[in-house]
Amino acid sequence: MSETKAGKRSPRELGMRYGIFLIGLFINSLGVSLITKANLGTSLISSIPYVLSLEFPWSMGVFTILFNVLLVLFQLVLLQKKFKPEYWLQIPVAVLFGWFIDLTMMLLGWMNPQGYLLEVVSLLIGCAVLGFGVYLEVLADVVMLPGESFVRAIVATWHTDFGITKICFDASMTVIAGVLSLIFFHGLQGVREGTIVAALLVGFLARLLGRWLSFLPGKLYPSVQAEAKTEKQENYWCITIERQYGCGGREIGKELAQKLGWAYYDSDLIQAAAGTTGLPEEFVEEKEEGITGSLLFDLLHSMEGYGGNKAAPQDRIYQAESQAIREVAAKGNCVIVGRCGDFVLREDENCLRVFLHGEPAVRARRVQQREDRRRREHYRYYTHGIWGLASNYHLTMDTGLGLAFARQGILAALKEKQAQKERT
User: Fold this and answer.
1) Phi then psi for 215, rounded to 5 degrees?
2) How does DSSP assign 188-225, residue by residue?
3) Which of 145, 4, 140 is nearest to 65 (CA)?
């Protein structure tokens, strides 16, 4: 559970979260069973229990319980005095998960796809179901599953990187399951190409649902609504500036802020994001707009978010910067450059949204243009919108006409918008 938020959650909200978690846990087990029934290997999380169940008389669900309880005991050894009482909740969760797996395997007893094509279709359906279950567990954000909690115990003990440690842990489970299969059956059973497909696809689908349904926590949970809510005085105004690389957007933003006597925010938001995510400022600065392709990005980070209740680093950076943007806009008059500020403040009537662009030859005289694609992908990934689309902004300008002209144009647009607000 997220400890910083736990105190703000009412009993009713906690009940809702645990209900969503239990539903997610059942759907998770159904996904695992569907993948297993596809006969192309099982999911990473169940690879060792499944191979053991093929050799010994106990079921996959029973071995799942034993395996997860063992992970909890390993956490106790690693953390010692830092092992918190609520961590014991992982054991009843493991018991329930194992029981759900046996139940769903029984319900799917009729399922026996014939032919490789049907097996692949069954595998993909199972991955989709498991991805949805993982998303619901992330949405609930109440109990950490033993696998992820074990990884976090390693990170806390030896100060390793979570993403790398999680991938190593998943890979180790697959290798151990493969070795056990070779020992027991002199060949691979339970660990096949479907295991690799599930490892990549499940996390990808869970992250995709997380982005598509990013509004859902705010709709469901009062604590999230309270955290996102910012009280803004009606006389406070802000200007957001999105810009093509090399258009002089930063210079224009600073000059506007100085002329108006307003606060200016650019790299300041990096510091704010670093402070709330716990990530180093240098890492935030490097990664904040580093998405080069949505599909590739999701696949590379799918295993890191697999089964976890914490967003991948880039998502945490975007969420923290968005919250920082809302807070500074509510705090006083300001100019905000970049970081999807126009989208974050799209419902703020006291916000003038500007996009600055320019001819390639003009921009090339200042800097190279390679950053444009990164900014475009970053904007599309998180807003599902088109970066630079005129309808997203109140004003778009070609800075090739001169930075002074652009600055005066923005000031004139701000004056007109303020006048319109006064007339309404």
Assistant:
1) -75, -15
2) --S-SHHHHHHHHHHHHHHHHHHHHTTTHHHHH-HHHH
3) 145
The widest CA-to-CA distance across the chain, in whole angstroms, is 81
Q: Which residues pair with 337 in a beta bridge?
A: 241
User: What residues have CB less than 8 Å from 343, skipping those under 6 apart?
Assistant: 379, 382, 383, 385, 392
Q: Which helix (H) or strand (E) holds 131?
A: helix 116-140
Q: At what angle do helices 116-140 and 11-37 cross, to 10 degrees?
A: 170
pLDDT mean over 90-119: 95
- As annotated, the residues of the chain forming the CATH 3.40.50.300 domain(s) are 230-423
DSSP state of 237: -
Strand order in 238-243's β-sheet?
263-265, 334-337, 238-243, 351-357, 395-398
The CATH class of 230-423 is alpha beta
Cα(357)–Cα(386) distance, rounded to whole angstroms?
A: 14
Q: At what angle do helices 403-423 and 249-260 cross, to 10 degrees?
A: 50
Q: What are phi and psi of 171, to 5 degrees?
A: -65, -40
Cα dihedral sign for 211, 215, 221, 223?
positive
Quick one: pLDDT at residue 98? Answer: 96
Distance of CA 195 to the CA centre of its chain: 23
* Structure-model confidence comparison of residues 385 and 368, the more confident one: 385
Per-position DSSP letters for 335-352, written without gaps between them: EEESTTHHHHTTT-TTEE
Select the highest-mean-pLDDT range: 36-40, 153-157, 319-323: 36-40
Phi-psi region for residue 338, left (φ > 0), alpha (ψ -120 to 50) or beta? left
Within 13 A of 424's CA, how many CA atoms are on the CB side?
Answer: 9
- What integer pLDDT is reported at residue 223 of this predicted model? 77
